Amino acid sequence: MASAVRDLELDLDAFEGPFDLLLTLLLKDAIQPSEIDMAGIIVAFVERLAERDELDLDACGEFLVLIASLLELKARHLFPDEEAELADMEPEEAAEELARRLSEYRRMKLAAVWLRERLEEQSELYFRLGPAPLAPSPERRLAAQEPLRLVEAMRGLAVEPPRVSLSHIALRFPPVSQFVERFRALLVRRRRFDFDTEMKGLSRVEQAVAFLALLELRKEGEISISQAAPFAPIRIARADEPLFNTDDGRMLQWTARSA
Amino acid sequence: MDRPLRLISANPLDSLARTVEALLVVASQPLTVEELAEATADDVERIETALGLLRERYSEGRSGIVLQKVAGGYAFGASREAAEACARLFERPVERGLSQAALETVAIVAYLGPVSRPEIAQIRGVAADSAVASLVERGLIAEAGRENSPGGAVRYRVTALFERVFGLESLAALPRLDDIGADQAAIRERLLEVAEARAS
Lengths: 259, 200
What we know:
The complex is a heterodimer. By secondary structure, chain A is mainly α.
């Protein structure tokens, strides 16, 4: 499953292809890290996770390590390498630059000394800063302790903690059969219905499972599916019902082949 | 009680001074002349005259409370003669444990601000992350926008609290860097001497 990270298909502005190839190109300097949208990679990985019905911690771990390395690479690329800048200079220029920096730092060090003296002068001046903070209470000294009591206390802490349950973060998918039954019941009451209307209020995962249920029913020959145009409402009818007319009068039927 | 206090009189300016006095007691940070003028619905010149009266009344040796001109405004503080008693009950938490690194960092921000962490690190030659975080937590520096370059590092400036803690009327009260600065030519000469000594 760890290879699932490297095979991750990316469709970014600056790159389209598997994650593995992107890493190779970055390491060969064929692509600049600053051009890569890291958030896009993370979104692609999270979507891949959502497609699977189980949380693979190995894959997540590998992804975190890789994306962290990429972020560091990008961050380094965004800031100039000062050492290299100095190395490119002539010795005279480098000495000049170094002297300028040292002089600047020395001035700031002297400014810090001035501030320290100023702070000492001001240390006798008290003023209100919101509610006046109380002085810290005197440190409490511990009474003499028995070593055996310490051992007992440590023993209590040395118990292995209970295993942490990850069940609450697993992705849950409703069974396809649930929607198959729901659509069958709907078609008993009504001869046709609009898929989008029925899906209102459901999560994306539930909508995806419901669509699988539609395909199942179509495969069994129980329903016919029509859609006037891409992204137009999907209409469902009993298999024995006539198909819907589209606006331009043509008869359209959705088939497994056209999907 | 037969003789009223100087501020308690029928003089309209004394009445204004008492109102300004009340505002300064309630405030927990310095108030500017403009803020006082707005709150009292009076003009700036009269506020300054009233503040003059209060400075006379609340000065070292005359009162336990002193009126300070600090951080671009006016604020009440405890007199120096009360410092020992104050120290037993209160502390000045903002400056407690202020490290040398933090002082150098705040000096850079005060003189060159707004500056970013990479700029501070370039001057000090070491990472400034922890010093900057400590100064932000103490309220001595605050964020002041971002750089325009790619990545846009956060820039920092000193706060009014910095001026108050260091007893500065404003940042203009900081000494000129030339007055405390170093001789760049002398440093360069020394660097070249060291380089030549190593080469020979």
